[in-house]
Amino acid sequence: MISGKTKKELLDEILKFGNVYLSCLKIGVDRATYYRWKKTDDEFKGKACEAERMGRENICDVASHALMQNVKNRDQRAIEYVLNHNSEKYKQKQASQVVIVHKKELPPIVEQKTLEDLLDDYGEDLHQKALKLKEKLTMFGEKIPDKLDGSPIEDHELSGYEGYIRDWQRHRRVNKESIDATDIASLRLENSTSSEMPLREETYLDRSNTEAATLNNMLDTKHEPPTN
Prior knowledge:
Helix content is about 55%, strand content about 0%. It has ten helices and no strands. It has helices spanning about 5-15, 20-25, 30-40, 40-70, 75-85, 115-135, 160-175, 185-190, 210-215, 215-220. Residues about 190-215 and about 220-225 have low confidence and may be disordered.
């Protein structure tokens, strides 16, 4: 049973940028469950609608800040956009574009997506890519190791840990036994003089994940004696 704490964490996440899909994905709550809560719980519905509204305002503030940064950087398109929408001198005059057409010639109506729809599509695309990557990494019965702190690697974090996972799986196949994430440091020392399968430190330095980028420092300091 999902606790009230989880609901609060989900609402706090939606409040950041107003996107339901990505918020549910991060907290670990199914999107259908979120909409069911809104339908059956009036109090939750009120808080959820307010969080979505304020979240959309927050993401607009972020976009406005980015636009101003582009103006400061003298980006021509950003400058034109700001002037066209805020200055009477530079506003483009709206010319009449009324066109009379026969009913048979009417173009099909194309549904316009909102910002939230686009963010949902983007989140779904990331989710599908994560599932495909997980399928590749677990092919032929391969396992996915835990992080260095012992916590599991979530699906949306797989791309950031791909190099780390593949090295862990490679060493596991070579040694024909299960190894922990923290055993990689000792494996590095054991294989440093072997030409069969040397550990490549650069495979761990995945730019998309800060924690993976610290692995080299941990490998270098794991076997050093403590300093007074």
